[in-house]
Amino acid sequence: MSNLDRQATPSVCGGRGFVVAEPVRELLAPRHVQLGESTEVRRLLPNLGRRMVGAWAFVDHYGPDDIADEPGMQVPPHPHTGLQTVSWLHEGEVLHRDSVGSLRTIHPRELGLMTSGRAISHSEESPKPHARHLHGAQLWVALPDAHRNVEPYFQHHSDLPTVITPGLVATVILGELDGARSPGTTYTPIVGADLALTGGAEVRVPLDPDFEYAVLSMSGEAEVDGVPVLPGSMLYLGCGRTELPLRALSDAGLMLLGGEPFEEEIVMWWNFIGRSHEDIAQARTDWMASARFGEVHGYDGGRLPAPELPPVALKPRGRVR
């Protein structure tokens, strides 16, 4: 998914200096962003007070939206560098096209994982016809410097491992949880899991104390370590935890995001992740010149132009502002 903000601002992220080394309970409020003509998203990362969680650098939550009489998601071809995109649905479907020739419809609880590497472009749209409701999350994972220029590719996994305990079905999206490992390719120690809770359930999810974590609320009412989280909000949890207590006040859907704190400082602007102003400026120039990113075939519409760069040089700094 693209960042369609025409007034794109740089996000300077990464580095261990700003990681919370002990357990915390930091509730992050979303910023509402219009995505295309008919989809509004709640942006949780980057956030005013928190830029990354492990290698997770961007989190949008959208829906549930009634799109029966609407075009639904319509995101024109746009570029990415230096990251992986993770598409995750609870309702509806998204048709993915990209410049390496991928064409795939992603359904609920299937992993759509696109690794941009040095450069890729893609589009996302609700297919015709489409389901009445659309509800999901779009996330980005920053690639470490050693791998940020890999050849671009796309993976689709419809059969993901689960961890099942009374009151909880946890689907492992990326990385490993309680011995279950996702088939999705990763480049840093990371975990992403979909947690489906039954109303009234009280469970404890095992965690790695070396990881920092956050929980995104997708639906229903739940308490995370005693803190109520409502749909569209995210609770940052810090590091140093060996387990996470969850209590469902109704049937609820959560996403657990975590990973080793990302050591490198990065620059994230529009749909690019780099290490310097020059990285970002070159990526923008290449996109506007129709170079390096390839072509997306089959989308009914033009490419998305890049916004203007800010008048000052982009500099990597830390994980919080």
UniProtKB/TrEMBL annotation:
- One Pfam family of this chain: Pirin
CDD domains in the record, alphabetically?
cupin_pirin_C (cd02247)
Q: List all membrane-crossing ranges.
A: none
Q: Which cofactor does it need?
A: Fe cation
The UniProt note on the cofactor reads as follows: Binds 1 Fe cation per subunit.
Pirin N-terminal domain span = 41-141
Keywords of this protein's UniProt record, alphabetized? Iron, Metal-binding
Pirin C-terminal domain sequence ranges: 193-289
> Is Metal-binding set as a keyword in this record?
yes
Protein's UniProt name: Pirin family protein
Q: Which organism is it from?
A: Streptomyces finlayi
